[in-house]
Design a protein that fits this description.
The protein has 16 helices and 4 strands. It is an all-alpha fold. The strands form 2 sheets. Strands 1-4 form a two-stranded antiparallel ribbon. Strands 2-3 form a two-stranded antiparallel ribbon. The longest helix is centred in the first third of the chain and has 37 residues. The chain is globular, with a radius of gyration of 21 Å. The N and C termini lie far apart (about 45 Å).
Amino acid sequence: MAHVFQVLINLFLATGALFLLIKLLSKIFDWGTIRFTQLNASAKRLLLAGIVILIFTWPLLVAGQPYVLRTSIIVLLYIVLALSLNFVLGFAGQLSMGHSAFYGIGAYVTALLTVNMHLSFWLALLISAVVAACFGFILGIPTLRLKGDYLAITTIGFGEIVRLVLVNWTEVTRGPAGIPGIPSPGVFGMVLRSSTAYYYLLLLLAVLTVFISYRLWRSRLGRGLIAVRDDEIAAEAMGINSTNLKVLAFVLGATIAGMAGSFFASFIHYVNPDNFTYMESVVILCMVVLGGVGSIPGVIVGATVLTILPETLRDIATYRYAIYGLLLILMMIIRPQGMISVASLKGGESGAHTGDKRGYQIFRRLSGSKQC
């Protein structure tokens, strides 16, 4: 009994500390967002140029610290995964909780093609993206009839089916033993084995994902997706084909998640079904929700914070998933718009305050509540 109380006390203290830290970071990001929106154009360009230079020279700055560089690679990987889920959750408003299935499909397709058939990594990457996109299309079809909690349950089932196939189809996937010996990619005959090379490869994929996110957000398709998310009936009344847009969001998110899985398999040189469990989907979901649903900078910050925090607080690693669940509940109640909301990015200080109401409305819609 004493052990149970000790676990509960540790869980309470760790959750409280992390929540206060995220609230503090949120206030800092609110202040930074307001100040950034008040800068003139030249100052904004100068600040963004500094950030870009810092990101591109990061492997040089942490030279001699391989652990920091590998953690940075994992941060980039989760930024790509969180942004890919943001297409489905943030833009289209579809509550998907099986995103790790696409991640796993991409990783396993690359592993099978490069290890068993000795295909080039780049060809395997394209095939992995196409296969993941096909599964995204298959999963997107139920969105025609399901929404809210029912869609979430369907996506959880899809993720578990994929994981069980990976575990039990031992003739192909080698079951729980996984597939080792996945080769590194090569460019012009030079094999890219170093962490620095993987950092720039993942950075390229992250930049591509951010570019696609912004282009989609500002396009006619993106505005259609946001209209469907806010009010599907009103969007259809205005002539928007919600069916096509929701399936498109699933296909796009699955394609990018499959590419992330392909890079993950090549980086780790080993894949196992335990890498793509339901809890992995929950972690990606937490990154999107804590960062800010629909907010591209917020999702990037959320993925960065939730990747670095477990590395810096390894003493509480035992309670990691329980803490994620409690944080998710607390954030949904107290700060549902996330650390950097879309409203604060658009409206500066006033938007930061109205973001509370806006984020709450999005949360209620995602949960399928009729009261919103």
